[in-house]
Design brief:
This protein is of the alpha+beta class. The chain has a domain at about 80-260: Protein Transport Mog1p, Chain A (3-Layer(aba) Sandwich), CATH 3.40.1000. Helices cover about 45% and strands about 20% of the residues. It is built from eleven helices and eight strands. It has helices spanning about 5-45, 50-55, 70-75, 80-85, 95-100, 110-120, 155-165, 165-170, 245-260, 285-290, 305-340; strands spanning about 85-90, 130-135, 140-150, 170-175, 180-190, 200-210, 215-225, 230-235. An eight-stranded antiparallel beta sheet has the order 1-2-3-8-7-6-5-4, with helices on both faces. The longest helix has about 40 residues, at about 5-45. About 20% of the residues are buried.
Length: about 350
């Protein structure tokens, strides 16, 4: 016969089961809270966009180069000392320019080349700063024209590619001079040194009339891109030009232009001058004075003269003595009060 458990045992068992259930539920809730908090923390972290991730992973893009200034273009020009004898600074445009270069033709490319040589714009119209210098060779009757210009890189490369086609497209053609005389024109290639970043050299020879007499003009043409700037050179005359001068001018000019672009002039300084200090010293400015655009330069305060310094010292001494007398009077008054008490 099976014995039934007592009511007390049943109550104890039920209490134990209930307590175990409560502990299990509390543990589950704690785990859920931990999991939820972790998930919330994970979701709270900012997620970078793909573009931002690519930007942070990729190296910073180089800054755009500054545009060529007029001062830099002028500083990059050649001098007669660079060319040596027999070159001297020019006294003006040669007489053969209008007579033999100002010509027209039915061929569009060849006419474009003649216009570019006459206007000295082999690479098109300059996009910014421009500086030009000329030299004359009185022994041979030649003239060298050299210019430095600001330009857009893509436009210069496109123009250089067009110049490379001239020895094929315009190897030989006929042009008409300003007085209607026919001119025979030939175009060949001229080798240039490995100067700059891109380059092209040509030789143009045109046979026509000058002052009613037959004449032949021959020019070396050079166009060079140096970074985002350009060099254009013409060298020649009524005698065959010496190409060694063309090569030398291109090499020296490209190197000088690079060096000029590297040199950044210091910003002008206008310190406040204190006449009481030595010329090599300048008083310091406070941030408010140096940054405020509405305030002028601070005016230095004059230093006191020896007599003023002595008066100030005597005044300070008198003030100090009066203060000491007042302190003594106060102390005596306090002693009197204490004696009364």
């Amino acid at each position: 016969m099976t014995r039934r458990p007592s009511p007390r045992a049943v109550r104890l068992l039920a209490s134990a089961i209930g307590m175990g259930t409560l502990l299990t539920m509390a543990a589950c809730m704690h785990d859920e809270d931990r999991a939820g908090g972790t998930m919330e923390r994970r979701q709270a972290r900012p997620i970078a966009s793909p573009a931002a991730q690519r930007a942070s992973a990729s190296p910073s893009a180089p800054t755009a180069p500054t545009a060529l200034t007029d001062a830099q273009a002028q500083g990059a020009l050649l001098t007669d000392a660079d060319l040596g004898a027999p070159w001297t600074p020019t006294e003006g445009a040669a007489l053969w320019r209008d007579a033999l270069l100002k010509a027209t033709t039915d061929n569009a490319d060849c006419g474009r080349l003649l216009d570019a040589v006459y206007t000295e714009e082999l690479l098109g119209e300059p996009a910014g700063a421009r500086a030009v210098v000329g030299f004359d060779d009185y022994d041979e009757g030649g003239q060298l024209r050299y210019q430095v210009t600001a330009a857009h890189r893509a436009d210069v490369d496109e123009r250089l590619a067009w110049l490379r086609t001239m020895p094929q497209k315009c190897a030989s053609f006929t042009a008409v001079g300003p007085r209607g005389a026919r001119q025979e024109v030939r175009v060949t290639e001229v080798g240039l040194p490995q100067a700059g970043d891109a380059r092209q050299g040509l030789r143009l020879s045109t046979r026509g009339e000058l002052d009613g007499a037959p004449a032949t003009l021959t020019l070396d043409l050079a166009a060079v891109r140096v970074g985002d700037d350009a060099i254009v050179l013409t060298n020649g005359g009524l005698a065959e030009p010496r190409t060694e001068y063309t090569v030398h001018a291109v090499q020296v000019g490209a190197d000088r232009l690079k060096q000029t672009r590297k040199e950044t002039p210091a910003a002008p300084q206008t310190p406040v001058r204190d006449e009481s200090q030595s010329p090599t010293q300048s008083p310091a400015q406070t941030p408010a004075e140096s940054q405020s655009p509405s305030r002028g330069p601070a005016q230095p305060q004059p230093r006191p003269q020896p007599q003023e310094q002595q008066q100030e010292a005597e005044g300070e001494g008198q003030d100090w003595e009066q203060a000491q007398d007042q302190n003594q009077d106060t102390d005596q008054g306090q002693d009197t009060d204490q004696d009364l008490y």
